[in-house]
Specification:
The protein is mostly helical and 82 residues long. Helices cover 78% and strands 0% of the residues.
Length: 82
């Protein structure tokens, strides 16, 4: 015996998809403009993001022991002024 859908599970889902498709087709120029603005922002921000990523990769990782030895080499006056 085949299972029957209770309520409007299939019909309401189909109707919802058709309504969403209607909205997208009715306002496609708006969605296209939003996509183009987002693409422009991404294209303008990408070089800066890549530069920051290269700078982060170039940073030297300092172990806690190295950090302590670096702090001990600093003059006492520079530690108390901060």
């Amino acid at each position: 015996m085949a299972q029957q859908n209770i309520g409007c599970a299939t019909g309401c889902g189909t109707l919802l998809v058709l309504m969403a498709l209607g909205v997208v087709l009715a306002y496609w120029p708006v969605f296209l403009a939003i996509d183009l603005v987002a693409l422009l922002i991404y294209a303008l921000a990408l070089p800066g993001l890549q530069q920051k990523q290269r700078q982060l990769k170039a940073l030297k990782v300092v172990t806690p022991a190295e950090a302590i030895s670096l702090l001990k080499r600093l003059p006492a006056a520079s530690l108390s002024s901060s």
